[in-house]
Amino acid sequence: MKRILVAAGVALLTLTSACGTTDATFRPARPMDKSIEKFDLDTVDGMHDGKQQIGDGWGATRITRGDVYFADVDADNVEDALTSYTTNGGGSSSFTDWFVYRGGGPGKVHKVRRPVLSGFEDASYVERVRPVRGGFELHYYVWDGRDCNACDNRVPATMTVALRDGFPVRVKPRFGAPQTCYVPMMPHTAAVHGRLTVRVAPDPKAPQVTAARAYTSARFADPTADPDLPGDIHWVLALLSGGGDPVCGWVRASDVGLS
């Protein structure tokens, strides 16, 4: 299991003298807290050496942690971590989820509940991760909607992810939900009416992708319910059009005509 990090930068301090000349000197920024690099994630996950098995025999579920990457994703000068978990439920089927661990200083690490990407939900495959200033750059693939053994049914994509208000977000190439609104994965369409609030996650507390505005149509995936939210609140990942550039994010299922 590799550990990959991004180096901290330096701050530029500019001083102006009484006679009007300007002197620029480089001063080290406050040292980045990198204590998470020594933290044992097994203590958070209940795993042993990055592995866990649930059940016995051929039908056992096996979970394996991948490489761990480090960068400050929430601009608090404390390093955070990103890693993957591959779940194999027996046979050849498996899927991989990516999670952020938020650093809080020595001995303080919190696993962010929502995954950045989910191989089960998004049919995505991350090929490469690069820690960058302010987040993690993901090079990944999404399924193009074709079921075939002899064709390459993957579409490459790149994004930079970070945390905002405790939620994973896409900050590049455009702010929004980290999931990809890829049309072959969104079989449903509907006319929409009124002003909708689009969020980065299926949670009423998640940051807004944009301020509430009017849309005319939506293309969306199957609805999902968040088991950690009270009540039976259903959401859909939707690509909304009308009144400007299309917007990708999460809306309530009732916003697109679903009960």
Quick structural summary:
With 259 residues, the chain is mainly beta. It contains two helices and 20 strands.
Summarize the structure in words.
With 259 residues, the chain is mostly beta strands. The strands form five sheets. Strands 1, 4, 5, 6, 7, 8 and 9 form a seven-stranded mixed sheet that branches. Strands 14, 17, 18, 19 and 20 form a five-stranded antiparallel sheet that branches. It has a four-stranded antiparallel sheet with strand order 10-11-12-13. 3% of the residues lie in helices and 49% in strands. The longest helix has 4 residues, at 42-45. The chain is globular, with a radius of gyration of 21 Å. The chain has helices spanning 42-45, 119-122; strands at residues 3-5, 10-16, 22-28, 51-54, 61-71, 80-88, 94-103, 109-111, 117-118, 124-132, 135-143, 154-164, 167-172, 188-191, 195-199, 208-214, 217-220, 224-225, 234-241, 247-252. The model is unreliable at 7-27 (pLDDT under 50).
SSE topology:
Elements: E1 3-5, E2 10-16, E3 22-28, H1 42-45, E4 51-54, E5 61-71, E6 80-88, E7 94-103, E8 109-111, E9 117-118, H2 119-122, E10 124-132, E11 135-143, E12 154-164, E13 167-172, E14 188-191, E15 195-199, E16 208-214, E17 217-220, E18 224-225, E19 234-241, E20 247-252
> What percent of residues are in strands?
over 45%
Kindly provide the radius of gyration, computed on alpha-carbon positions and rounded to a whole number of angstroms.
Answer: 21 Å
Assembly category: single chain
The ordered string of helix (H) and strand (E) elements is: EEEHEEEEEEHEEEEEEEEEEE
Q: List the total number of helices.
A: 2
- From the N-terminal CA to the C-terminal CA, the straight-line distance is 45 Å
**Mean pLDDT across all residues, rounded?**
81
| Overall SS class | mainly beta
Q: Which sheet architecture does the biggest sheet show?
A: 7 strands, mixed
Outline, from the CA principal axes? globular
Regions with little confidence, pLDDT below 50 for 5+ residues: 7-27
Percentage of helical residues? under 10%
Structure summary, number of beta strands = 20
